[in-house]
Amino acid sequence: MLAIRMSRHGTKKRPFFHIVVADSRSPRDGRFIEKLGTYNPLLPREHDKRITFDKERVAHWLKVGAQPSDRVAKFFAQAELMKPRERREQTKKSQPKAKAQERMKAAAGGGEAAAPAPAPAAEGEAKEAAAS
């Protein structure tokens, strides 16, 4: 499968990327088929040399079936070469777990959330009283 992706160049702490077409099995900075453009993340966003690529060649490779990486697809969508991809749902790992969320709801709700909690205990006592 062909991939349109970025290949890292530049020195330590000074990234610079080539936008290349490569076989998806080849290494990130390894063998590629054709260089399509460049991306320099150190330049300001509005700078015209920050992202450069040959639109005709990009259109050709997309037509042939090359799949762009997420970041490269975003660049192509900004240049209106393809429609933007849907944003993936963010992970929920950073959110508190269920019990912590319940505690936060109880604290935010004041007495509302605290009142229903003793109700199950009262039902249990009522069943014990009915049994004896």
**CATH homologous superfamily of the largest domain, by name?**
Ribosomal protein S16
Task: Give the SSE order as H and E letters.
Answer: EEEEHEHHHH
Give the class from helix and strand content and strand pairing: alpha+beta
What is the global morphology?
elongated
The CATH architecture of the largest domain = 2-Layer Sandwich
- Seen as an oligomer or otherwise, the chain set is single chain
Strand content: 15-25%
Distance between the termini: 74 Å
Tally of discrete structural domains: 2
Largest sheet: 5 strands, mixed
Q: Low-confidence spans: pLDDT under 50, at least 5 residues?
A: none
Q: Radius of gyration in whole Å, from Cα?
A: 28 Å
CATH hierarchy, class of the largest domain: Alpha Beta
Q: Give the integer mean of the pLDDT values.
A: 84
What's this entry about, in short?
This protein has helices at residues 55-64, 70-78, 98-109, 111-114, 118-131; strands at 2-11, 14-23, 34-39, 51-53, 67-68. The chain is α+β, with helices and mostly antiparallel strands and 132 residues long.
Overview of this structure, please?
- The protein has 132 residues and is an alpha+beta fold.
- It has two domains: 2-78, S16 Ribosomal Protein, Chain: A; 99-131, no CATH class.
- The protein has five helices and five strands; from the N terminus they run ββββαβαααα.
- It has a five-stranded mixed beta sheet with strand order 4-3-2-1-5.
- A hairpin with a 2-residue loop joins β1 (2-11) and β2.
- The radius of gyration is 28 Å and the shape is elongated.
- The N and C termini lie far apart (74 Å).
